[in-house]
Design a protein that fits this description.
This protein has six helices and eight strands; from the N terminus they run αααβββββββααβα. By secondary structure, it is of the alpha+beta class. It has one domain. Strands 1-3-6-7 form a four-stranded antiparallel β-sheet, with helices on one face. A two-stranded antiparallel ribbon has the order 2-8. Strands 4-5 form a two-stranded antiparallel sheet. Strand 4 and strand 5 form a beta hairpin. Helix 5 runs antiparallel to helix 6.
């Protein structure tokens, strides 16, 4: 009886570990992320060769450290060349890359999050739009202090900042942005001149 109970416990334990321990296929996620990054870039109309080069190039991204987020991976996309186009007739080379940072020498980068449970992407930094609101709503079943946006106050922001953390992101600022306060956390990657 004891051996049978122990065996059942081990099987259940391994099932849980294997189910929750699944790794995100980073290469596949980065391919999808590159598609989502395309509208954020001001590339204009690309030639076939430049578009093919864009599709072939691997997107270089760093996985950011975080705390409190289950099944969510955060990607930092720093400056990089995204496509090269060589026009033989005109003997010109065009290089397409992420926008340059125009903010007094600060490092500029895009931050996206990927939720492996619902396969959603969230734009969190450097993009024209910000999806932090959707990420916050998706946390409502996981965070015991979750409140609707209308009820967010300083106490909620402080508790959230204590329970959650992402390297390079000001989550307090993002949470305050939901209640109408603006901050530099919503600045675009490269402001228009």
């Amino acid at each position: 009886m004891l051996k049978k109970s122990f065996f059942i416990f081990i099987v259940i334990f391994l099932t849980i570990i294997i189910g929750y321990g699944q790794q995100v296929d980073t290469a596949l996620v980065l391919k999808h992320l590159k598609i989502r990054l395309f509208p954020e870039l001001q590339l204009g109309l690309l030639s076939n060769s430049a578009l093919n080069d864009y599709n072939k190039r691997e997107l270089k991204a760093t996985i950011l450290k975080s705390k409190g987020f289950e099944n969510i991976t955060f990607f930092k996309i720093s400056s990089q060349v995204l496509a090269v186009d060589t026009l033989k007739e005109r003997e010109k080379i065009f290089i397409y890359s992420t926008p340059f940072c125009l903010k007094n020498g600060e490092e500029c980068y895009f931050v996206y999050a990927f939720n492996s449970i619902n396969n959603k992407f969230y734009r969190l930094k450097g993009t024209n739009q910000n999806d932090f609101e959707y990420l916050y709503y998706d946390l409502q079943n996981n965070w015991m202090y979750w409140k609707s946006i209308k009820k967010i106050n300083t106490s909620t922001i402080n508790q959230f900042s204590k329970d959650y953390w992402i390297d390079g992101l000001d989550l307090g600022c993002l949470l305050r942005s939901l209640i109408g306060e603006k901050g530099t956390c919503l600045d675009y990657f490269s402001p228009k001149l």
